[in-house]
Amino acid sequence: MRMPVVIGLSCLLISCTMGPDYERPKMEGAEAFRMGEPHADASSIANLAWWEILQDEPLQQLVRIALEENKDLQRAVAVVDEFQARAGLARSDFLPGVSASGSAPALGRKTSFLVPGFVNPFNYYLQGNLAWELDLWGRVRRANEAARAELLSKEENRRAVVLQLVSGVAESYFNLLQFDAQLDIARGTLQSWEESVRIARARLKQGVTSRLDLDQFVAARANAVVRTAELERQMVQAENQLSVLLGRKPFTIPRGRSLTDQVMPPSVPAGLPSDLLQRRPDLLQAEQELAAATAHVGVAKADRFPRISLTGLLGVSSPKLSRLFTDPASFGVAGVGVTAPLLNGPALGFQQEAAEAQARQAVAQYQERVLTAFREVEDSLVAVRTLLVQHDAQRQQVTALQSALRLAELRYKGGLANYLDVLVARRNLFEAELSLTGTRRLHLVSVVQLYKALGGGWSPDMERPTDRRIGS
């Protein structure tokens, strides 16, 4: 047995590996993001942990609950466990395959008939088998490369799910805060319309105004009731949506700071574009999928060549149990097995072409994801920049409309203006206040989306202690 082992090891040392080695596709790079801060250094908001971005304590607790109980994340973790097992299975192909079999026909028919050198079911026997494929063409090595790359891609997918989950919980939470703010505005406006209706009725009794004024105010009050009910419905539905992200049945979501009191980093540097390829989990996932597809090409090429294996057989056999372990009962054989494709050569050729086509698909998918990643970063950068300007302008607009409404109400009460001035002023203020809260939410969400587009900074070793008091 020593000589076949030496020959096998020598063959492994001189063996080659079929198929191309993986190389990252070249992409046209840039020194800075187009919408990034001028003269920015290599720092990036993505280097911060998520709790440094989201500084609302109830929101942080919600994120921690989601990281523990979200079902998509649990499924992603289970997929990683599956591919860890698959990678271990692929590594086992490097080792010899050993099996054993035996027979004890004590309850069946016995016979002394025995053909020398052959085991039959009427004998007592123990038999061990050995098979070890010599990886001359690198089929096993390429299969292990593919299994490892697939495992890494699933691990990156888990990171992508985590980043998506953190940003999703934050965006849903900000939606809730927007509905809260808008609901307060709608209820305050409804009270104002109630006061206007009361004044109009009093003036109608005094004969100072007409029925038309009262009807217009009543209609405006009804519109405020409709908007209030609509916002209440949207708020509850948003709570239900966030509850699913948390992996729980719908419940009342606790709030912390109001929409206007949320704290965000004063600056949101994007960092270097080259870091994006090393940080974003979806890009790393696509790259590992490409590496796996490249390795599968090598497997397909190696399948077209003969497989050479070292085989061995060792055992004992006897028609009588008492003679099972005597010298005449032992048998064994060792040799080299060769399995070569003959008539299925064209089919294996098509299999190789299919693997090469899949590798080209993976290249195109990786390049497309890179382009999409840069677009998402640029979109988020321009959103952060312009929404700040928009928010300041709308805040000035609200201040001006509040002043206009006060003057219109004073003039109406003093008989110097008609109901139309109050109607227009209050409607304009109502819509402007709603728009202002929407812009504030969009600004908060744009910062979170930029954090996600840059790949975030979350990793398991950065996780803080869990607080599960909410809804538990």
Characterise this structure:
This protein has 472 residues and is an alpha+beta fold. The chain has one domain (45-105, 115-462): Outer membrane efflux proteins (OEP) (Up-down Bundle), CATH 1.20.1600. 61% of the residues lie in helices and 8% in strands. It is built from 10 helices and 4 strands, in the order ααααββααααββαα. Strands 1-2-3-4 form a 4-stranded antiparallel β-sheet, with helices on one face. Helix 8 (281-302) runs antiparallel to helix 9 (345-413). The longest helix is centred in the last third of the chain and has 69 residues, at 345-413. It is elongated, with a radius of gyration of 37 Å. Mean pLDDT is 83; it is low at 460-469.
Count of extended strands: 4
CATH class wording: Mainly Alpha
Fold-level CATH name: Outer membrane efflux proteins (OEP)
Number of helices: 10
Rounded Rg? 37 Å
For the largest beta-sheet, the strand count, sense and barrel status come to:
4 strands, antiparallel
Give the CA-based shape: elongated
What is the end-to-end distance? 65 Å
Helix content: 55-70%
Identify the CATH homologous superfamily. Answer: Outer membrane efflux proteins (OEP)
Query: Low-confidence parts lasting 5 or more residues at pLDDT below 50?
Result: 460-469
Mean pLDDT: 83
Query: Could you give the order of the helices and strands?
Result: HHHHEEHHHHEEHH
Structural class: alpha+beta
Provide the number of structural domains: 1
Write out the strand line-up for the largest beta sheet, numbering strands in chain order: 1-2-3-4
CATH architectural grouping: Up-down Bundle
Strand content: 5-15%
